[in-house]
């Protein structure tokens, strides 16, 4: 079979063309070792035959869970050559995430290493191929390409999205979708076989696939970083410029969080001399502001092109890009994600689903040749996100759940995330809800921009959080710049009050040492802390009352006037404890009689009886006020109710239990059995409920 026969328009077909053109060229470099295109092609062919023999049929799914190194690229290409589609899965991912992905994808085979066999076998129950232990058997197979017909419309991979708004779901991406994205990258990035592309992302993220496609479909060398700077939070950012310089990297992509760390490091280390050979740096995955982009560009020098890219896994990773070269505006608080890649299209939609005019704020939608097939086993979500649109040439768009606007110069400005903006399009109530959501995101973006303009703020976020059960509020979060003094909530509040219109100030501003991040390096909104419950109506301002209590002013560290003070807990506890003490002799005659107990033990027992009454009072109080505390843990309703009752029982049961024991005859076995089962067994059950409450996790960890 000729190389490429039956493989036209496929990812592995494009790779095989490069392997045929230059078999001795370096394809993958890792830990000082090179794997050539010819070697990679031959090894992938052998493994493809082995996977087919172990149950991977054309059109089937194979989960690939391998650590960093060259072997993972052998496995990915092997799955494609066998006619299958791969599901990238980080072997070190949390167990709930592994189980969810493997259960949802139900792959025919799992490709991994012996070190992960037990964990993945337990999670999937599917056939497992360990590339290290199977190496001898694989090496004995033919290196000729398998005769499996694969076409452009066949599935190539399934990206499981980050799950920032729900359980991760599988985005179905065909060969033609990724090849269309590749053509856009090739043109905009000017990719050539002389490039050395750095790969820093984790296998489970779509950028990992984008990196290898850009490199191996071009004939370039893919340089694999020894550690993932996103997942490995202990990694020193100084490793990155050292690696770039040592390996002669010319192209690399980072997420916004890592780009900020890099800028901070280079600013203190004396500039970007280590990046002298780099010609292109792209940054994505999260909101990255124009002033940050321009500052990094200046630091690296005019020879490095710095792009801000935007896209979703469902649309083959990247849809738009922005080059800040020559842009004069300050851009502090502005995130420009630019214009579409060749083959891509972008729209901003009104609440009714129609196209918004330039300058108007609405939901961002993307379309084009890179738009994926939909979701795996998620027909309702697919119908909600992938929509028919007569204004698009293909008649099909993807609602991103992001809010932005296309400026008069045609550049897309990203404002923020608001999943499901147009979920009810077509109904008046849905349109009003969508319009309100867009307005809130736009207001939050303005607030974030003003907060970033504070001279002491390096990073910030503005989010709507549930400060109490049923009550949500907008809260700002700020991280101090390295050379700035500790942030004062009062000064942050005053700064916002001076620059924001009346009514747009957040309910609180919380200084943080660092913003919480998901596994993908994005802001983890679910992990943002609640503001402190301080009774403060906000700073007064001389500008027309901005910041006053009437205009929705700011709380220095938190504004929470509805929460009851501590005395509301203490007072009923003492009252109920006193009532219990008074009623003890009435309900349980002589149960607390210590007249026959010698001193000082009579005093010890008396104090024990007092403590039992106080515990009873605390239990009753928790039964009344505890639901507010329990609800803040965001557990399921049934588990929250059970936990509240369990705390009540663990505290309150001692008073009636011990008194009943003391007035019962030791030989009254029926009564003793009732007491044991009603109290002791119930106490054990209550303890188990609390253990379950504390150990509970969402169905999957955040990505």
Please tell me about this protein's structure:
The chain starts with 10 loop residues before the first helix and ends in an 8-residue tail after the last helix. Residues 1-6 and 534-564 have low confidence and may be disordered. The chain is built from 19 helices and 24 strands. The relative contact order is 0.07. The chain is α/β, with parallel strands linked by helices. It is globular. Among the domains are: 437-551, ANL, C-terminal domain (GMP Synthetase, Chain A, domain 3, 2-Layer Sandwich); 566-695, no CATH class. α1 crosses α2 and α2 (37-53) packs across α3 (71-81). The strands form four sheets. Strands 1, 2, 9, 10, 11, 12, 13, 14, 15, 16, 17, 19, 20 and 21 form a 14-stranded mixed β-sheet that branches.
Q: Quote the beta fraction.
A: 15-25%
Which structural category do the helix and sheet elements fall into? alpha/beta
Extended strand count: 24
- Write down the overall mean pLDDT: 85
Discrete helix count: 19
Q: What's the alpha carbon Rg, rounded to whole Å?
A: 31 Å
Query: Main beta sheet, described?
Result: 14 strands, mixed
**Helicity, in percent?**
25-40%
Gap from first CA to last CA: 42 Å
> Can you tell me the residue ranges where pLDDT is under 50 for at least 5 consecutive residues?
1-6, 534-564
**How would the global form be characterised?**
globular
């Amino acid at each position: 079979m000729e190389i490429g026969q039956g493989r036209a328009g496929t990812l592995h077909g494009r790779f095989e063309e490069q392997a045929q053109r230059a078999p001795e060229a370096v394809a993958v470099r890792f830990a000082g070792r090179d794997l050539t295109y010819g070697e990679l092609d031959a090894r992938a062919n052998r493994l493809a035959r082995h996977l087919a023999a172990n149950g991977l049929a054309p059109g089937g799914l194979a989960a690939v869970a391998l650590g960093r190194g060259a072997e993972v690229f052998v496995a990915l290409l092997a799955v494609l050559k066998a006619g299958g589609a791969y599901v990238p899965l980080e072997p070190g991912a949390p167990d709930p995430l592994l189980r969810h992905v493997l259960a949802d994808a139900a792959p025919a085979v799992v490709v991994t290493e012996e070190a992960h066999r037990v964990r993945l076998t337990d999670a999937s129950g599917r056939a497992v191929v360990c590339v290290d232990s199977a190496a001898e058997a694989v090496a004995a197979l033919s290196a000729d390409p398998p005769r499996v017909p694969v076409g452009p419309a066949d599935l190539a991979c399934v990206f499981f999205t980050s799950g920032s708004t729900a359980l991760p779901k599988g985005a179905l991406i065909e060969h033609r979708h990724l090849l269309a994205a590749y053509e856009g990258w090739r043109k905009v990035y000017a990719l050539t076989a002389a490039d050395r592309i750095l790969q820093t992302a984790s296998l489970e993220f779509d950028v990992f696939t984008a990196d290898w496609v850009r490199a191996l479909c071009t004939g370039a060398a893919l340089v694999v970083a020894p550690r993932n700077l996103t997942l490995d939070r202990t990694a020193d950012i100084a490793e990155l410029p050292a690696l770039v310089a040592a390996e002669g990297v010319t192209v690399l992509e980072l997420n916004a969080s890592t780009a900020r760390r890099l800028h901070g490091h280079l600013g203190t280390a004396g500039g970007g001399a280590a990046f002298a050979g780099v010609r292109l740096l792209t940054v994505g995955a999260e909101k990255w502001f124009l002033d940050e982009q321009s500052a990094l560009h200046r630091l690296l020098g005019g020879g490095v092109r710095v792009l801000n890219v935007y896209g979703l896994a469902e649309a083959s990773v990247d849809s738009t890009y922005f080059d800040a070269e020559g842009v004069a505006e300050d851009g502090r608080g502005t995130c420009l994600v630019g214009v579409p890649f060749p083959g891509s299209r972008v729209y901003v939609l009104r609440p009714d689903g129609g196209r918004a005019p330039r300058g108007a704020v609405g939901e961002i939608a993307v379309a084009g040749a890179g738009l994926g097939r939909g979701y795996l086993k998620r027909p309702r979500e697919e119908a909600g996100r992938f929509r028919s649109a007569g204004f698009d040439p293909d008649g099909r768009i993807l609602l991103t759940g992001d809010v932005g606007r296309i400026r008069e110069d045609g550049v897309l400005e990203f404002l923020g995330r608001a999943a499901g903006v147009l979920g009810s399009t077509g109904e008046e109530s849905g349109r009003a809800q969508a319009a309100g959501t867009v307005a809130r995101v736009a207001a939050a973006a303005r607030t974030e921009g003003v907060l970033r303009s504070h001279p002491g703020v390096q990073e910030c976020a503005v989010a709507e959080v549930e400060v109490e059960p049923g009550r949500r509020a907008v809260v700002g979060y700020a991280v101090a710049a390295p050379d700035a003094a500790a942030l004062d909530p009062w000064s942050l509040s005053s700064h916002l009050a001076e620059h924001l219109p009346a009514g747009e100030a957040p309910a609180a501003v919380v200084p943080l040492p660092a913003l919480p991040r998901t596994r993908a390096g994005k802001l983890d909104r679910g992990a943002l802390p609640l503001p402190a419950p301080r009774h403060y109506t906000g700073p007064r301002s001389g500008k027309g009352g901005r910041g006053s209590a009437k205009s929705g002013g700011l709380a220095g560290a938190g504004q929470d006037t509805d929460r009851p003070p501590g005395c509301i807990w203490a007072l009923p506890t003492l009252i109920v404890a006193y009532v219990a003490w008074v009623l003890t002799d009435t309900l349980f005659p002589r149960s607390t009689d210590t007249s026959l107990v010698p001193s000082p033990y009579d005093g010890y027992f008396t104090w024990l009886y007092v403590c039992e009454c106080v515990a009873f009072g605390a239990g009753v109080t928790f039964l009344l006020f505890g639901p507010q505390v329990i609800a803040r843990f965001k557990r399921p309703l049934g588990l929250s109710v059970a936990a509240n009752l369990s705390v009540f029982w663990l505290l309150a049961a001692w008073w009636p239990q011990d008194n009943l024991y003391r007035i019962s005859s030791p030989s009254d076995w029926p009564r003793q059995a009732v007491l044991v089962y009603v109290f002791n067994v119930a106490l054990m059950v209550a303890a188990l409920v609390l253990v379950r409450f504390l150990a509970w996790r969402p169905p999957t960890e955040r990505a």
